[in-house]
Write a structure and sequence with these properties.
Elements lengths: L1 E7 L2 E7 L3 H13 L10 H18 L1 E3 H12 L2 H12 L4 E5 L4 E5 L2
Helix pairs in contact: 2-3, 3-4
């Protein structure tokens, strides 16, 4: 059993998790393998390069409609799923402003 107590903002949290032996073994294996499943070292490098390239794509264009940007990101990543993740990541990036236009959102690079 694992108990977590604290606060989320002003809300008190008191959470109890019951894990069987198999759950503890899986959790221990992930912790032993490295930062609980977070990519480390060389495995993270391709994703970092892809993120940098996605930012550079929008930075170079200055602005781009959402569907066009998504198509470019999917082509860049070689996967529709990864392209969508990059688009969401750009939407929440501090250097990007999203304008809700009539037909499609427009992504603006702000720096």
């Amino acid at each position: 059993m694992l108990r977590i107590r604290g606060h989320i903002g002003e809300w008190p949290v008191d959470l109890t998790l019951e894990l069987d032996d198999e759950d503890w073994a899986r959790l221990g294996a992930r912790l032993a393998a490295g930062n609980a499943g977070a990519p480390a070292g060389p495995a993270a490098e391709p994703a970092d390069r892809l993120w940098q390239t996605a930012q550079q794509l929008l930075r170079s264009a200055g602005q781009m409609e959402g569907p066009t940007l998504l198509n470019r990101l999917q082509a860049l990543a070689g996967s529709a799923e990864v392209g969508k993740r990059l688009l969401v990541r750009l939407r929440h990036c501090a250097q990007v402003r999203v304008e809700n236009a009539a037909d499609a959102p427009i992504y603006h690079w702000t720096e």
